[in-house]
Specification:
single chain, 915 residues, alpha/beta, Dna Ligase, domain 1, D-amino Acid Aminotransferase, Chain A, domain 1, 35 helices, 17% strand, elongated, disordered C terminus, metal-binding
Length: 915
């Protein structure tokens, strides 16, 4: 439903008697964007402020929706348009298209959200073979009149009648060649008359009809064309990219024409009340004398800085400066303004809240607070997490010369440069020698972790935003580009072939941009981020070396921290990441993935544990693992002293700890052919075959693994408890929480909990220390969410694992689907965004909400959090705030984003949409 203040609103597909479909500019206001579109609402607002706006009227989005649903305009629309046109003609003292003194109008689109260039506009409606003479007489300029007429035929032919625009351009070029000139403005009236004749012939041939001479027919057809342009291919693609709903429709603005191309005392321009690039106050914009707005866009002539208007036309300049101040104070924000000067008379054609860079957004928000125009809550609505993320990651110098060779999915932001390497071993080796490297793989797996840590960035030819490479890279703050399918990666030959046949050999320098997904040959210079230096404590707000941007970010983050209810924790698996997360503002660890502690040197111990045939062998392996695990937790608890640390017991499927079945089969076969000893390899192969799973992500993992392999979970619980006791003895304040993964039924949790409670009691007795170790579970299966009330009887907290919950709710394998069909789903509008990137509120989100409610009905003090990738996604953070979770947990480098969005969610207020 729109914000129509009229009590009657058109129902979709119907024409309801008495519904108001047309508003004069004097009737609307800036709060009616749903109904009048952004352009119409703001034209009305400027009119109400007494600013010089050419008179006109707006056809509502409701009329557009009726037309799009039914294929016909509302029955009452024509009469309403006629009534408003009569009023406009009386106000202007001239009639649309009359021969001696014609009124000309523009017909422009105007949706709720700005969609620049995506929909249609037609200028100079009302010109015809007769009225062009009247316009020439009225203006005292024959050339101007014929130039306006050829523009109308060209725009109308292309936009309304569907004529190929290149045909008009070719005719225009021929006219300039015949005249031996290079720009349109050098054509004279006689040349333009001939061009009009040529254009009309093109229309007749291509459209099968004459260019309409009836001005009302011109206007009616143009209005329909604007309605139709809402569903044009470029408009639909833009809406998908910008996540604008498809059912809003567009308004149509009919505005009396004013002309900036009437001589040197006329012109057109664009102005900003502040610099949209930096946020600094001053005079920003461009001006072009003796021109229409389309001339500025076409770039056929060079504009001059707006400040030069003061010398060209001081009266108009001073009036414009005053209007800009009025608009900024009224909208309480940066305003983007389009204006025309017609023979010394300034006219305002459009204003809107201006788009800006991320840095400008933070600066402007704090400036407006200081000016008393907005409060802290509104300042938080003027920035967002995506902008903060842009400021945090290093970026390439855009002025540098680059050679782009590919593009993949922008999986983890940043700019990374290094030598190409194709395996983890080489990445580590070269890195230790002081080389910067980019690890290139078809796809990564846990074995690549060392190489990923060593590399400056990761590039894969497969996978998506939630692939292993992407998730781990984001957690480490590493730049990552995934799914660059046009790049052919050959790890055996240690080379990558790029489009065009160029081969990148191991050791060649490449650069990858994790913010855009672009891949470059050679080294592209990198610009560091002072915002990250601030979060890491290397730059202090208010210090001499801190710039305005850091100070603005510091203040906005302080606003957010004061406002937010959600606490923000980190996903961190070691002390180094934990300390970084703490510097970034983490209030604990919401997910410590113990599987990462079992890789590397310990992998052989885990392999022996899994393959143990006897209780003795199993106990020996556990005995060796225990002190190593304990030391991991001692370091982690020390780093996060005084803050909660949620430790997830071992979760991944068995195959991640066992040799690859194909490689092992080859080794055994070779040994047999050479008659070499291979008893151990054969035994191992038999065990791998026995444990092999077709779908390991839904197999023996999580709590199932803990129940099947005796002693595994109890060893981990003992390590946690002993580490906590040791920290307490050292006067520390460990706050450990034990999380059981992949629980589907309360009975699983009860069994593991009973064993854990017994181990904790043993450690308490041995150490003489009372331990408070909360035990909870991850809710990551639909059944767990649906039986949350039962599970809460045995759980002190829930942490929603939304990655796996999304996977199991949708029936998607997240390692496969993004690369296989997600692109098609996004293009077809099935998804507005990947459900692995932003939580699916209707499906996955409804399970989260229901489980949270059921869990707290059983246990009112149940602590609720989320530790999937969604914990750092801006839109998802707002959802988690709404459903009442206590905290979100995310990668260390996403903590500031989550803090900011948690503050924005808590202080949500009525404000401008800064889409």
């Amino acid at each position: 439903m729109s914000e129509n203040k009229d009590p009657q609103v058109a129902e979709s597909g119907k024409s309801v008697e008495g519904v108001k479909f047309v508003y004069d500019f004097t009737e609307g206001n800036k709060d009616l964007k749903d109904l009048l579109g952004g352009k119409g609402a703001n034209l009305a607002e400027m009119t109400n402020l007494g600013l010089p706006v050419p008179p006109g009227f707006t056809i509502t989005t409701e009329a557009c929706k009726v037309y799009l649903d039914s294929g016909e305009e509302p029955a009452a629309l024509r009469d309403e348009v006629s009534a408003h046109l009569d009023a406009l003609e009386q106000k202007m003292g001239k009639k649309l298209g009359q021969a001696d003194n014609p009124l000309l109008v523009s017909v422009r689109s105007g949706a709720k959200f700005s969609m620049p260039g995506m929909m249609d506009t037609v200028l100079n409606i009302g010109l015809s073979d007769k009225s062009v003479q009247g316009l020439a007489k009225q203006a005292g300029d024959e050339r101007f009149a014929w130039d306006s007429y050829r523009r109308l035929i060209q725009m109308f032919g292309k936009t309304v009648l569907g004529v190929d625009g290149d045909l008009f351009e070719e005719a225009l070029e021929k006219a300039k060649e015949a005249k031996k000139v290079t720009v349109d403005t050098e054509l004279e009236a006689a040349d333009l008359k001939k061009l009009v004749t040529s254009f009309k012939k093109i229309v007749k041939k291509e459209a099968g009809r004459d260019f309409p001479q009836d001005p009302r027919e011109q206007m009616d057809l143009a209005i329909k064309a604007v309605f139709d342009s809402w569903n044009g291919d470029r408009a639909k693609l833009y809406r998908r990219q910008e996540r604008i709903p498809h059912d809003l429709g567009t308004a149509v603005n009919v505005c009396s024409m004013v002309f900036g191309n009437l001589g040197p005392d006329s012109g057109t321009g664009v102005a900003f009340t502040r610099d949209p690039a930096s946020g600094h106050q001053g005079v920003y914009g461009d001006y072009l004398q003796n021109a229409q707005g389309e001339d500025v866009v076409a770039g056929i002539r060079n504009t001059v800085p707006l400040a030069e208007l003061e010398q060209i036309d001081k009266k108009s300049y001073d009036q414009l400066m005053q209007i800009m101040e009025t608009l900024e104070n009224h909208y309480k924000d940066l305003c983007d303004i389009e204006f025309t000067i017609e023979r010394g008379q300034l006219w305002m054609l459009q204003t809107r809240v201006g788009k800006r860079t991320a840095g400008a957004a933070f600066r402007i928000a704090t400036q407006l607070v200081d000016q008393g125009l907005i409060d802290e809550a509104e300042a938080l609505q003027r920035v967002n997490g995506a902008q903060l993320a842009q400021l945090m990651f290093p970026r390439f110098d855009e002025s540098a010369k680059v050679e782009q060779v590919g593009r993949g999915i922008a999986a983890s932001p940043g700019a990374a440069v290094g030598k190409a390497v194709f395996d983890s071993y080489t990445a580590v080796k070269w890195s230790r020698s002081g080389e910067k490297v980019i690890l290139i793989r078809r796809e990564t797996n846990p074995d690549d972790l060392d190489g990923m840590i060593a590399a400056e960035g990761i590039l894969t030819s497969r996978g998506g935003k939630t692939s292993h490479a992407a998730v781990v890279a984001r957690g480490m703050g590493k730049t990552c580009v995934c799914g660059a399918e046009e790049l052919e990666v050959d790890t055996k030959r240690r080379r990558m072939t790029v489009p065009g046949g160029h081969v990148v050999e191991e050791g060649d320098l490449i650069s990858i941009d994790g913010s855009t997904g672009k891949v470059y040959l050679g080294e592209v210079p990198v610009v560091p981020s002072p915002v990250v230096e601030y979060f890491e404590g290397r730059m202090h707000a208010g210090a001499d070396d801190a710039d305005e941007l850091v100070e603005a970010v510091h203040r906005i983050m302080a606003f957010a921290d004061r406002k937010r209810r959600l606490r923000v924790r980190a996903n961190a698996d070691n002390a180094e990441d934990a300390l970084r997360a703490r510097r970034f503002g983490a209030q604990g660890i919401g997910l410590c993935r113990t599987e990462h502690m079992f890789l590397g040197d310990r992998r052989e111990l885990v392999e022996r544990l899994i393959l143990a045939d006897t209780q003795t062998e199993r106990e020996e392996s556990l005995k060796e693992l225990l002190p190593l695990q304990k030391q991991d937790f001692v370091e982690l608890f020390e780093a996060m002293d005084g803050l909660p640390v949620t430790v997830r017991l071992l979760d991944p499927p068995l195959h991640e700890f066992l040799p690859d079945i194909t490689e092992l089969s080859v080794r055994v076969a070779l040994a047999e052919s050479r008659q070499e000893p291979h008893e151990n390899e054969l035994r191992l192969l038999q065990a791998v075959h026995r444990l092999h799973e077709q779908n390991p992500m839904l197999g023996l993992r999580g709590v199932r693994l803990g129940l099947v392999i005796p002693g595994l979970f109890t060893m981990q619980v003992r390590a946690i408890a002993e580490a906590a006791a040791e920290r307490k003895a050292a006067k520390g304040d460990p706050r450990a929480e034990i999380m059981i993964p992949l629980v589907g039924t309360v009975q699983e949790l009860e069994i593991v909990r009973d064993e854990a409670d017994q181990v904790i009691a043993e450690v308490e007795a041995a150490s003489g220390t009372k331990l408070k170790l909360a035990i909870g579970t991850m809710i990551e299966l639909p059944r767990a969410a649906l039986t949350a009330g039962q599970i809460a009887e045995a759980a002190e907290f829930f942490s929603f694992g939304t990655n796996d919950l999304t996977q199991t709710v949708w029936g998607f394998s997240r390692d496969d689907v993004e690369a296989s069909f997600f692109t098609a789903y996004l293009e077809k509008g099935i998804f507005g965004v990947s459900p692995f990137e932003t939580i699916d509120k209707d499906g996955v989100g409804s399970l989260v909400a229901a489980a949270a409610k059921a869990g707290r009905e059983t246990r009112p003090d149940l602590k609720l959090g989320v530790c999937g990738e969604h914990g750092g996604d801006p839109e998802s953070v707002h959802f988690f705030h709404e459903v009442g979770l206590d905290y979100v947990s995310c990668s260390p480098f996403r903590i500031p984003v989550a803090r900011l969005e948690a503050g924005r969610a808590a202080s949500q207020s009525v404000g401008s949409d800064h889409r």
